[in-house]
Amino acid sequence: MPDISPPPYDDKKTGAEDESCVVEEDGGFRIAYWVDKNVRQTFIRKVYSIITLQLLMTVGIVAVFTFARPVSFFVRSHIALYYISYFIFLICYFVLVFCRSIQRRFPWNIILMTIFTMAMGFMTCAIASTYDSKSVILAMIITAIVTIIVTVFSFQTKVDITSWRGFFCILAIVLTVTSIVTAIVLTCKYMYWLHMLYSAISAIAFTLFLAYDTQLLLGDKKYAISPEDYIYGAIQIYVDVIYIFLSFTRLVSRN
Fold it and tell me: Does this model's pTM top 0.85?
């Protein structure tokens, strides 16, 4: 389960190098908010521009692998490619999330993010190719609707979801344990109801993660990410959307 916690602020760097963002201490927690609204708006536009490109690339890959039967058959016949793409995805993800010097260094951040997106796209299409095309299309539509609703809600609501960090940590742990247990059980014996239950839990969890990660971009909540971490913000929301799509694909499929 990818970590959804934002990178911590550095007080000295924030105060000296980024005057558009102010950090205050409150009971041991670091609270960040924007001073210049134009900086925040530019940051948000940059993040969503990157996410749009990532999703367009992923949709294109999924469309080819879903509707081109020879390609779909090739992917299902070579399951090792899925595990290779998953390994590449994890490596790129952890480097971009935890190595802030690379995350902020052009062009390495763009190169790694492109590789990350292609690996995630191949993983997605490898999973989607095992389901019928109608289920994939329906899951895409549901994901788009859910993503729009959650994004609008996160921007408009006065509820500060970023202050629920303990809840989201527990949710991430529960989801990780559930994923491991479900994978082991289903490997030994397939149970349809367990598969559907896990898919429903996953869909709900990543929908909540999407709301949390979206509010981290706004800057007017208790916690926020630095305007320099646009790559971090983009990949977190992108991962949330992809996992929501995969969860709904399993839910609506009759396989």
Answer: no
